[in-house]
Specification:
Distance between the termini: 28 Å
Structural class: mainly alpha
Number of strands: 0
Number of helices: 6
Number of domains: 1
Radius of gyration: 16 Å
Strand content: under 5%
Order of helices and strands: HHHHHH
Shape: globular
Helix content: over 70%
Largest sheet: none
Length: 138
């Protein structure tokens, strides 16, 4: 990419919008799996059992917290609304996912590469802001 593209606000705003839409949609759908059992997810009960087996006390409560963080964080990123808070919710959730999967190594399916990528993308949005095409900028 040339320096002129980096200085073009429309190009930068479009790139941030694309990142927000991809990450936000991904997180929203994962949260909906946890909260509602949509898209093949376990719902609160199944996710709570998974969290309990992973060593979290109060697995059901953690399922609700993780599901809300992912769903609301994802929605916030898609809309560009309260972007730093939405991104922080995603980063926090993904740090916990990395901790659970750490023993699986780096590479998928058991490793942490996917969760690290999501956390890094959310952290980047927290640092850069949502860009111009966002409710935060309206």
């Amino acid at each position: 990419m040339s320096d002129s593209n980096l200085n073009n606000k429309w190009v930068v705003d479009s790139g941030l919008l694309l990142l927000r839409l991809a990450l936000g949609t991904t997180m929203f759908l994962h949260g909906a799996q946890k909260l509602f059992g949509w898209f093949g997810g376990g719902g609160i009960e199944g996710t709570g059992q998974f969290f309990a087996m992973s060593g979290y006390p109060a697995g059901t409560a953690m399922a609700v917290v993780a599901g809300l963080a992912e769903t609301l964080g994802g929605l916030g990123l898609v809309l560009g609304l309260l972007t730093p808070l939405a991104a922080a919710a995603v980063v926090g959730t993904m740090i916990n996912a990395v901790a659970v999967k750490w023993s699986g190594g780096f590479f998928a399916p058991a490793g942490v590469e996917y969760e690290l990528l999501l956390a890094a993308a959310a952290a980047a949005l927290a640092l850069t802001g949502p860009g111009g095409f966002a409710a935060d900028r309206a």
